[in-house]
Amino acid sequence: MSGILLLEQTLNGLQFGLMLFLLAAGLTLVFGIMDMINLAHGSLYMIGAYLMASLAQATGSFWVALPLALLATALVGAALEMSVLRRLYERDHMTQVLATFAIILIANEAVRLIWGSQPIMLNAPPGLTGPVELPGGMQYASYRLAIIAVGLAVAVLLYILVTKTRVGMLVRAGASNREMAVAMGVDIRRLFTVVFSIGAALCGLAGAMLGPILAVQVGMGENILILAFVVIVIGGIGSIRGAFVGSLLVGLVDTMGRAMLPIAFAKMFSPQVASNLGPSISSILIYVLMAAVLVFRPQGLFPARG
Amino acid sequence: MKRNVILLVVTAAFPLLMDLTNQQFYIGFGTRVLIYAMAAASLNLVLGYGGMVSFGHAAFFGAGAYIVGILAVEGLRSAWITWPAAVATAAAAALVIGALSLRTRGVYFIMITLAFAQMMYYVFVSLKAYGGDDGLSMPGRSTLGFGLDLAHDLTWYYVVLALLAAVLYLLHRLVHSRFGRVIEAIRENETRAAAIGYPVYGYKLLCFVISGAIAGLAGALIANQASYVSPGILHWIQSGTLMIMVILGGVGRFWGGPIGAAVLLALEETLSGSDLLGPYALHWQLPVGAILLAIVLFAPQGIAGLAAKKRHA
Predict the structure, then answer these.
(1) How many A/B residue pairs have CB atoms within 8 Å?
(2) Is the predicted pLDDT of residue A270 greater than 80, yes or no?
(3) Angle at A213 between CA A208 and CA A218, to 5 degrees
(4) What pTM value is reported for the model?
């Protein structure tokens, strides 16, 4: 195991974890404040990626398209919240699962109708297409570094938003005790719409940034959605800090597991056993992590409700 | 009782009618409905009667299917061995998953059952020896003996129907037994049930295991249906679909599972055929989603609930 490989995988894990954080942050707020299971969160991620791809083509510039895509995704999120989701807050979790599952079906087909079934390509912005040399002589894709930078910047912005602003104070009040917040006169309806739109914009950002690395295609939101759920359960529902730690944990464990376990198994077992065992163990690693966290700390690592 | 007899007659006559009118395709469709009815009924036991929102039911459904598939590939095709093996494996999986998951509640329970199901999914996806990503093709359906050839679609339909009837009879006895009452009491108020002196955890676990075992049987049947098992059967979308069948039909209503399975599959079948929507049939999931959403917003009690309300009105 060389140091370069280790560093590269750490950076990859960090990059994946930070993008997961963008999804998990919105999801954990919606979950924590509105007590709502939103399976359609992954659909917003998909819609964000598609909008980004279209806008980048229309404007001809990645950096012009990015804010437009975020705004558009936030608007889609606000529309979704005001038209459908708002009616579901008072209903039980099962109903929310059914309704948001229906929204996934609708969103997937709507995207297919508009953009077609083929995956579409989104190019990294010029200037960030090649590798850069890191201190220590390692080559690393500059675009992936940019993703890490954006992810960290958003994390800092969110931290400031949640801890230092009035909206953030209301959000924290809502997450720790919703009834009390309402009794104190917080306009929960408007707060919900605002929080949901912010969550949607973060989804859009994740979709737009990951677009050039992954294929933009229908169904891209479904697998990452489950990972985002794993993150917020590990971190503690409703906690942004938990979502951040959980994201990095899941991102690093998943990436490192996939890279290291097959190598480790190859040394311990016969090649045939190792080739079967490696991928299966590494892909269930994060679920084992989550089950372990839940068994020992059923409320997650950083519970929002004291 | 009278309604049940009518239902039995109708489901028994259905494939004969299709055979006579030369629409044999619908015999296969009918069999699929019966199998999913069994799976949904098993989920309804935990979801509706036990109040445990399990989002990983595909794990047991898929475990049953894979056991039958793997044994068939290894040369063991007798239904008398492979189907009980499927039931036992699914029950064992439910025992382990349930024992750990039932320590949590609420949303955490939903998520941890989901996580366990996803684990199973990834294990089978990376199990290259048994098809991995591509799924597992069986040499043919299980063998039953007694001169019954399961490869014959009509025979197969009746075997599935008989099993479904037996399972529904057992479930009916179960939910109306003392056990069923206790399970419902726990759903309504767990603290009170514990205070009366019922071992709540044990009752919930037993309920979870019985439900998993039945799902395993349904899985054994679905593997036989197409003589093919794909890892997609373990994906969380599958758990979601089963859950939607139950909610659609009516959570905690005895016929909720079967009704939901029949309605959802019939919807898919109608909307994905080109008769109704023409070239847009490709996008059948859009109207299905819209209809599901409308049901959530306007018929909160599901279809069985809607029918019950009409009777009382």
Answers:
(1) 129
(2) no
(3) 65
(4) 0.85
What residues contact residue B260 under an 8 Å CB cut-off, 6+ apart?
Answer: B40, B244, B245, B246, B247, B248, B249, B250, B302, B303
On whether residue A129 sits in a domain, the answer given is no
Q: Which long-range contacts (CB under 8 A, 24 or more apart) does A56-60 make?
A: A56/A122, A56/A123
Give the distance, in angstroms, between the CA of residue B156 and the centroid of all CA atoms in the same chain.
Answer: 18
The predicted-structure confidence for A293-304, as pLDDT tens digits, reads as follows: 877 887 888 876
- Tokens encoding B192: 């009170």
- Considering only the beta carbons, identify the residue of A94, A102, A284 that sits closest to B123: A284
**Is A239 part of any domain?**
yes
**Coil, strand, or helix at residue A301?**
coil
Instruction: Tell me whether strands A131-134 and B228-229 are parallel, antiparallel or unpaired.
Output: unpaired
Within 239-268 of B, beta carbons closer than 8 Å to A belong to 240, 243-244, 247-248, 251
Q: Show the domain range for A240.
A: 9-124+138-296
CA distances from A272 to A125, A259, B26, B129, B257 (A): 42, 18, 44, 10, 43
Sign (positive/negative) of CA torsion B94, B99, B105, B110? negative
Overall number of domains in chain A: 1
Q: Pick from A210, A166, A192, A160: which is nearest to A22 by CA?
A: A210
Q: Is B107 on the interface with A (CB under 8 A)?
A: yes
pLDDT in tens, A53-65: 999 888 888 889 9
A43: domain CATH number? Answer: 1.10.3470
Q: How much is the ipTM here?
A: 0.79
Q: Is residue A1 part of a domain?
A: no
**Backbone phi, then psi, for A216, in 5-degree steps?**
-85, 105
Residue with tokens 């195991």: A1
- Residue A3 included in any domain: no
Contact A98 B125 (CB under 8 A): no
Taking CA atoms, what residue in A is nearest to B99?
A295
